[in-house]
Design a protein that fits this description.
This protein is of the alpha/beta class. The protein has a single domain (8-291), classed as Rossmann fold (3-Layer(aba) Sandwich). Helix content is 39%, strand content 18%. The strands form 2 sheets. A 7-stranded parallel sheet has the order 3-2-1-4-6-7-8, with helices on both faces. A 4-stranded antiparallel sheet has the order 5-9-10-11. Helix 1 (17-28) packs across helix 8, helix 3 packs parallel to helix 4 (107-135) and helix 4 (107-135) runs parallel beside helix 5 (157-177).
């Protein structure tokens, strides 16, 4: 186990999937954690799991829309109020976002995707860095990027572009904050078995999980393990780096969702709102049928 004793952390999108797994790992490693999420039900479930594991006094939940600056500022303030400081922020909240051919992508769905995936990272970096500088002693800003932001074929054009922007932001902000001993690092997951990917039906996406060369399916805990290391003193000389955690998927070249007309992103269009509790919209481009 890594040692995060005495650290205060925020995890956005912390109420499910990789976020929840990381919350539990941070707590087990001795940190105090503020869970931020838009989904109140998942937030309550996460608090209950933490309480069962004996961490009731070391965790708090804040409902937060990570694309709204007032919510992000309030989140950081709540962490300071509850636990006295801020040492780690894991900017993990995400959605699948807009998908479908570019000619079928609405401006509204494109903007929504960048609001949740990129603007939120900017806001998190901004307000976390202010708090960390104020308290002194440095800190860690960790971001969930994606291998989709590193190469074509890993996701929809909107999602991939948003994650590519995040990877660039990690590198640039890392150089800015290094003097204050604030490290900025990223994790680029491959296909991880989370509700965002399988939407409650992991068996439907078995084909995507089989694309990677490593034989074991990627579970949220593999991300939590890397997150804990990157936020520990063991990674004290790592900054401006985004670590691939993908079972070798990118090393062999990818086409996770198929190629040409086999790619579902080209047969349907809409927007995936992840585990926010808000409905996903899918339009079948052949029939014109729309369904949630």
């Amino acid at each position: 186990m890594t040692d995060l004793r005495g650290k205060v952390a925020i995890v956005t999108g912390g109420a499910s999937g990789m976020g929840r797994a990381t919350v539990m790992r941070f707590l087990a490693d001795g940190a105090k954690v503020v869970v931020a999420d838009l989904n109140d039900k998942n937030g309550a479930e996460t608090l209950a799991v933490a309480e069962e594991q004996g961490h009731a006094e070391d965790i708090a939940f804040v409902r937060c829309d990570v694309a709204h600056e007032a919510d992000v500022a309030n989140l950081v303030a709540e962490a300071e109020k509850r636990f006295g400081r801020l040492d780690v922020v894991y900017l993990n909240a995400g959605v699948g976002g807009a998908f479908g051919p570019i000619a079928e992508t609405s401006v509204e769905d494109w903007d929504y995707t960048f609001d949740v995936l990129t603007r939120s990272v900017f806001l998190g970096m901004k307000h976390a860095s202010i708090a960390m500088k104020k308290h002194g002693g440095g800190g860690v800003i960790l971001v969930t990027a994606s291998i989709a932001g590193m190469v074509g074929g890993g996701g929809s054009h909107a999602y991939s572009a948003a994650k590519a922007a995040v990877i660039s932001l990690i590198e640039n902000v890392a150089t800015e904050l290094a003097f204050d001993r604030i490290r900025v690092v990223g994790i680029a997951p491959g296909v991880i078995s989370t509700p965002l990917v399988h939407r409650g039906r992991p068996e439907k996406f078995e084909k995507q999980f089989r694309h990677q060369p490593w034989p074991d399916r990627g579970e949220p805990e593999v991300i939590a393990d890397v997150a804990a290391f990157l936020c520990s003193d063991g990674a004290r000389f790592i900054t401006g780096e985004t670590i691939k955690v993908d079972g070798g998927l990118l090393a062999q070249g990818i086409a996770i969702w198929g190629t040409g007309k086999d790619n579902p992103f080209l047969r349907t269009a809409g927007v995936n709102r992840g585990t926010t509790g808000e409905a996903m919209v899918v339009r079948n481009l052949a029939s014109g049928e729309q369904k949630p």
